[in-house]
Amino acid sequence: MSLHWPSRLWIVRHGESAGNVARDAAHALGADRIDLATRDVDIILSDRGEEQARALGTWFAQHEAGDRPDVMLASPYARARATATLFRDAGGTADDGPICVDERLREKEFGILDGLTVSGVASVYPDQAEFRRLLGKFYHRPPGGESWCDVIFRLRSLMDTIALHYAGRRVMIVAHQVVVLCLRYVIENMTEEQILAIDREGDVANCSVTEYVFDADDGGSSGMTLVRYNAVADFGETGSAVTTAEPDRTVGVRG
What we know:
Layout: E1 8-13, H1 18-29, H2 47-61, E2 71-74, H3 78-89, E3 99-101, H4 118-124, H5 126-135, H6 148-165, E4 170-175, H7 177-187, H8 192-201, E5 209-214, E6 224-231, H9 233-236
Parallel strand pairs: 1-4, 2-3, 2-4
Antiparallel strand pairs: 1-5, 5-6
């Protein structure tokens, strides 16, 4: 198998955001809506999220240049761009090259359900709550929003771009929880049942690392071998607390 993929690929979820904090508060209060007055795309990192991004960059900076990314791709959402920038400025990349923003890495769009908790969906849009129960999260597309399949469709295009332009390079992607999971689905040629089983095992932690290496002898269809998933312990000793999302507690989770 020829090298048509990155030699290494890291997929990172952004640091804790103000949206994550607001979501937790809404859940604690039993509220129907998350208290946010800005677009999802504009939600910034919390102070802890900034610390997490710097901590991850500091940990990568301890490695040789050949073990650090030389290509950075990020979701256009403010929290992902800030995570990538703080990571790079902390020495996490092999050079100070630009961060390439790609809209295909954006958060899953929740449409009319954006900003609602699970109880809020049941209260405000009971028909959508029932549709989601019947269809499952993989196929349910709220009005004006996306299903996981829709996210996967755009990520297949993204991976084609990466194969075309970044073969043999060391690539890091900074994006969102559903994007991390859907990229696993694409790269590892999974089924709906397999990826949802992984989703049920636990949440994707803020600033966690999922890593692949290219292996020409890999029997899989892509040649990309999973090295670690949702890894946080390697840089946890920096003192920055790791945070997770609760994807089944909220629908417009702003992940």
